[in-house]
Design brief:
alpha+beta, Arc Repressor Mutant, subunit A, three-stranded antiparallel beta sheet, about 30% helix, globular
Length: about 150
């Protein structure tokens, strides 16, 4: 709890009990979260407007980032707190979407080299999305390697 308060302070975010609990949820969760999932995790006791405002603040300050979803829902995941800040989101990593459970995972330990284009284009943003079966879904059933 103290760690989460310190993190919110470091990123210049007001330390309300809900924001502390929300940050704790992101730290505890292995995958990304939709607004609906957050709403459900708080037993529908938090107003959705409060959730939207907290997520917007977290994203603007570099604490979370949006991740892709196969159903085009907004999902959020915790940023790398060593490389992101209110001034810069540094997301040079891919994302993995599971076919079975529909979860999106950040591939933080992957490295991606930016391709240099011979046409003089300047790459400012890119997305790498890998799809398949996550470790939980892969181990719970026999899945064809096709």
């Amino acid at each position: 709890m103290k760690k989460h308060k310190e993190t919110l302070s470091r990123f210049g975010i007001n330390k309300t009990q809900f924001r502390i609990d929300l940050l704790s949820l992101f730290f505890d969760c292995k995958s990304s979260l939709t607004i609906h999932e957050i709403f459900e995790r708080f037993n529908k006791k938090i107003n959705k407007v409060t959730i939207y405002r907290a997520l917007e603040s977290f994203e603007q300050k570099g604490l979370i980032h949006q991740v892709p979803d196969k159903n085009n829902l907004k999902k959020y995941s915790l940023c790398n707190l060593d490389t992101c800040s209110p001034y810069s989101h540094n997301h040079q990593h891919g994302h993995f979407i599971c076919y079975s459970c529909d979860q999106t995972f950040c591939l933080d330990n992957s490295t991606i080299k930016i391709l240099k284009t011979s046409s003089g284009h300047i790459v400012k943003n890119y997305n790498l999305i890998l799809e398949g079966y996550c470790t939980d879904c892969n181990s719970s059933q026999t899945i064809s390697q096709n």
